[in-house]
Amino acid sequence: MKKAIAIIGLTAVIAANSQAAAVTVTLACGAVGQELELCKAGADRWAKKTGNTVKIFESPNLTNDRLGLYQQQLAAKSSDIDVYQLDVVWPGLLSQHFVDLKTKVPAAEVNQHFKGIVAANTVNGKLVALPWFTDAGLLYYRTDLLTKYGYKTAPKTWAEMAAMAKKIQDGEQKTNKSFTGFVWQGKNYEGLTCNALEWVVSFGGGTIIDDKGNVTINNARAAAALDAAASWVKSVSPAGVTTYGEEEARGIFQSGNAAFMRNWPYAWALGQGDDSKIKGKIGVAPLPSGTGGKPAATLGGWQLGVSTYSKNQATAISLVRYLAGPEEQKIRAIEGTYNPTIERLYKDQAILKANPFFGSLLSVFTNAVARPSGPTKSKYNQVSQAFSSAVSDVLNGKSKGAAAVAKLSTDLARIKGRGW
Predict the structure, then answer these.
(1) What 8-state DSSP symbol labels residue 173?
(2) How many helices (H) and strands (E) does the chain have?
(3) pLDDT digit string (tens) for 140-177?
(4) Less CB within 10 Å around the terminal CB: N or C of the chain?
(5) What would the DSSP string read from start to end of 52-94?
(6) What is the distance of C-alpha 352 from the center of its chain?
(7) CA–CA separation, 40 vs 51, rounded Å?
(8) How far is CA 82 from CA 99, 119, 145, 313, 326, in A?
């Protein structure tokens, strides 16, 4: 009955909105993979239902660049963008600029989303945004090549992955000099923070900063994790991996030039597209574990928030509710492998047919490791930049793991000293 009420309530909002004077709202969409295409399509469906118009603001691919642009718009109290697409780690940083949706959206509608993601979007009791899709890091691999080289299953540890990648790489390079073993996000940006957090946690090295705000990165296991990753560069990963974002890694893997790839779920649908050279040859597994640890996947995902500077807040809220609702989340899951934030959709047969691994890897998504944005609040961006820069130095041979985590610990303590 509660689900029915929520759906009826949303339908009523859309219907009421369609009877009011039509307005134009601007929606900031990402452009990684199929993001922009699916965002436009969803906005068009809402516009058709309501009689309003949606103008799309195309955001930069890299999360750091997107955040910088958003901060400029919000600091200027600009009304140019009504609805923002927000990373899961941004609510604490940007909460003051967004409408509290807690009193604007029925509780039953909010409660259909994963509790942990709703909590991540709640700052001091304020619901900053509605969850749109969730993410967690995954290991993609070439099923045909694992079989060709005598492997029956995906690697369970990073050491196994490196050994398998080297064997496959050496064999494939006899006929394809461009082939490499493993591609991932090594550029110094938020994507590297996500990758490196997975390495550190999987080695039992903690989460950089714990839930109480204590800096924990300066330990031997964290150092070992960074040194292990550095050993892949110019060995089973190309030298250029330290400049790769999501799309650079996907481009190499999808063109048939890599055995393994770390990426987000969106890469599945694209890899199975008609233009993909590896269609039907892709497997997906949890990321490997390190010595003394267990597999870890960084929690990602995006939400939709309404700017307090919007001149069309009610209409913008209607758009957010529609896009974050089950109908749109199902479409996005089937067409673009965007993980729903509504748990019941993981039992939807159409979604599972399009994304077979959603069911088997559900625990990866529900137990993903959060970046320390909660305890660091408004200082998270500084913490993340310090972390990714320290990791980048190790990957590029400028530092060893032990020295890097020791220096990083001092830098983070300094940031903490200014309050978080």
Answers:
(1) T
(2) 20, 11
(3) 999 999 999 999 999 999 999 999 999 999 999 999 99
(4) N
(5) -EEEEEEPPSSHHHHHHHHHHHHHTT--S-SEEEEETT-HHHH
(6) 20
(7) 15
(8) 11, 23, 47, 7, 22
